[in-house]
Amino acid sequence: MANRPRAFLDANVLRGQLTTDVLLTLAHERLFSPRWSQEVLAEVKRNRPDGVSEAKIDARFDQMNKVFPAAMTSGYERLMPEMQADEKDKHVLAAAVHSKSTVLVTENTKDFDPPSSGSNAMKVERTSAFLNRLLTESPDRVTSAMNKMVDRKREVADVLPEDADRRIVPDGPALFGPDGTRRSEEPRDD
Predict the structure, then answer these.
(1) How far apart are CA 19 and CA 159, in angstroms?
(2) Architecture of the domain made up of 6-159
(3) pLDDT, tens digit, for every residue of 134-143?
(4) pTM of the model
(5) Where are the beta strands (DSSP E) in the chain?
(6) Where is each PIN domain found (predicted)?
(7) What are the sequence ranges of the domains in the chain?
């Protein structure tokens, strides 16, 4: 697919780990090109699930930005006044328009009323509608991507702790020892 659709992901779809994993797995398989903004990531961080530390969410964002360097959208602020959205969500729609996304993926569809034509035209879809559309358009590719995601999770669950980090980051340092305890971050010359 030479011209992948561009999808702006709102904070409420990036909040949950499984939803994020599904979306970014599909993006990694080139079914769409993801976009987000620093404001969206800050909103995810403020509203992160209980038990998820700031450090863990920051590490997730770092990895997302590393894998999808073109996803971070900036420079949209000048568009905010003309956006047809709830005041607190104008930044989301402005970033989606500025990033030239074809769809805004959000669970909060009631707060957005973008025009369907013109320079600020934007389709707004819930995550389920977006995923169903991708599945309808590319059933084999979506199924293959989801099977890879399940296999990846199964592999990590089936390995010893000292091997898990190597499966996740093949060229990275071993972060867990044979007894399952976390090693220090800095490699030591013994």
Answers:
(1) 24
(2) 3-Layer(aba) Sandwich (3.40)
(3) 999 999 999 9
(4) 0.78
(5) 6-9, 33-37, 72-73, 103-105, 123-125
(6) 7-110
(7) 6-159
